[in-house]
């Protein structure tokens, strides 16, 4: 029995493709070209599934041109590239990866908080421009974060991760 055909629409780690190849006949876009709609439709021909990103719009036109498609799995938290109504009408499953970047985004939020407080970017630019010639007690002193209270507006997944 032949394996179902799937499309990996953007570049992924090679070990992901190797794992998929155990179960599917995989066409992978490892050159990471962002396809326009006609190119995406061409690559989706005969495919039962697609591993997509936000750059791959799956709408009624794509679905009508790709009748073999049964599932699109988005490599993202969001799924605004999916026309959910059109996919439901065509019987095509839509999946995403909720919570996959919650802690990562919280880390970036905290990193930005630290960088702004300690003036990291500003001082790094000053240094690279060759302007630092001597130490000064008040140069880029910034503000301490330790022993400070942090106010978080919005205690969703990411706000809780920062906390």
Helix and strand pattern: EHEHEHEHEHHH
Reading off the top of the CATH hierarchy, the class of the largest domain is best stated as Alpha Beta
Main beta sheet strand tally, sense and closure: 5 strands, parallel
Spatial strand sequence of the major β-sheet? 2-1-3-4-5
Question: What are the low-pLDDT stretches, counting only 5+ consecutive residues below 50?
Answer: none
Please sum up the structure shown:
This protein is of the alpha/beta class and 163 residues long. The chain has helices spanning 14-21, 37-44, 60-65, 84-90, 102-118, 120-128, 157-162, and strands at 5-8, 25-28, 49-52, 71-74, 93-95. The chain folds into 2 domains: 5-95, NAD(P)-binding Rossmann-like Domain (Rossmann fold, 3-Layer(aba) Sandwich), CATH 3.40.50.720; 102-162, no CATH class.
Annotate the secondary structure layout.
Elements: E1 5-8, H1 14-21, E2 25-28, H2 37-44, E3 49-52, H3 60-65, E4 71-74, H4 84-90, E5 93-95, H5 102-118, H6 120-128, H7 157-162
Parallel strand pairs: 1-2, 1-3, 3-4, 4-5
